Amino acid sequence: MSSIxxxxxxxxxxxxxxxxxxxxxEVVSQQTRQLVLDxxxxxxxxxxxxxRTLATKKxxxxxxxxxxxxxxxxxRHPFLQDILVAxxxxxxxxxLHLLMLAPDQSAGPAGRQRFLRAVQRHNVDGVxxxxxxxxxxxxxxxxxxxxxxxxxxxxxxxxxxxYVTSDNRGGGRLAAAHLIDRGHRRIATITGPPxxxxxxxxxxxxxxxxxxxxxxxDDADVVAGDWYLDSGHTAMRRLLARDPxxxxxxxxxxxxxxxxxRALHExxxxxxxxxAIVGFDDIEVAALIPPGLTTVAQxxxxxxxxxxxxxxAMLQGTVTPEPTALPTxxxxxxxx
Length: 336
Known about the structure:
CATH topology of one domain: Rossmann fold
Largest sheet: 6 strands, parallel
CATH superfamily of one domain: Response regulator
């Protein structure tokens, strides 16, 4: 995070003047105030006094940083919804409340500064980060200010930061081992976004088991999706164009698996007789869609509860909990 000295230097004013802008703005000229505020927004400066307030005063309010832009589908993913219910319940049991915080990543420095001011105004005791939040410089500024942060499925670390995740690599191994045990040799996969940690871990575990069995994945057998239905549908259509086509597909998310099954139905193919499908997450629809989706289950309630427990531990003590990775389990149904 930028320092007050850097901000003063960039503006060509004294440190004392910068301090007055944020603490007693009425004694600073309008022109100077605007200069300092604009530069603070540009470099993502968070005033020290605001940082101390965030880190020491108690409001019993925990901020939830979650990308809820209506143009993105993340807000409606059933996996995240289930985690949120568990998180809220566990925090409420400790007398803590959730406040939705949504930094506007498209608004640049000015948007980041508005986000920081909103957080300061609500005086949250800590922040839980879901989805894309940790990539935003405004969220990084909160962590640098000493605000307790718990991230979900993001390796977000620091003196007052920890994270909760699933054993994604182990889950990928479970999926591969199951398909090999079923006798499949032509196996492909639909991954999550390659730049996300869970997707990379699931693919690494999947590849490792195939390699142990003396098999490998061609580049054309690995198609990236975005966790959602349409991408699974599109990816499966690409895999069906392969010659020979795969006899089994591991979709690294259940919504993508459901989209893939829809593509198979449209092509007149049967699951699992023509192509077997394994998903990941165990969302509610996995047990409802015929013939029932075989999937690697994450402990969604456990993830939300563990995140809440980590936050409470930081708010009540001085030790930052170690990162938590919850085990995954294979749920066998009719699709594979």
